[in-house]
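Note to self: keep these together.
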Amino acid sequence: MFPEYIFGGLFSILPLLDPLRNAIDIQDDIITIEWSPQEKDEYFDAEFQRSLRLLTDGKLEEARLILEDLAFRSPDDPNVLYNRGMVYSEFHELDIVIDTLKRCVNIVPLYSNAHRSINAVTEKFISLKP
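Structure:
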C-alpha cells in the first residue's frame, strides 16, 4: 500500500492541472493519471485569439465584448478571466478588475501575472480614491 503522504502530494497537484480534465486510477499499487485539455470548440479558440489581436490593436471595446461572451461560455477559463480583467482595467472598472483577477487566481493559484495585476490595480484603486 502507498504511504499516506503520496496521496496528499498526488491530490495536491490536481488543482494545478485545472482546467484540465483528469482521471486517477489506482490498482495493484500503481497510480495512473490521465489528463487531457478541456475540449473547446474551434469557435472558442478562434474568438479568444481574435480578442488578443484586438487588444494588441487597441480595439478595447470589441475585445471586451468577445471576452464577455467567452467568459459566459467558459466561466472558469483562467486566460479568459485574466484578459477580461486586463481589458476592464483600461476602462478603469477597478472593482470588476479585482473581482475577475481574484476568480482567476482562485482557479489557478500560481497564475503570477494575475497576482501582480491584482497588486498593481489595488494600488491604482487606492490612489484614485478621494
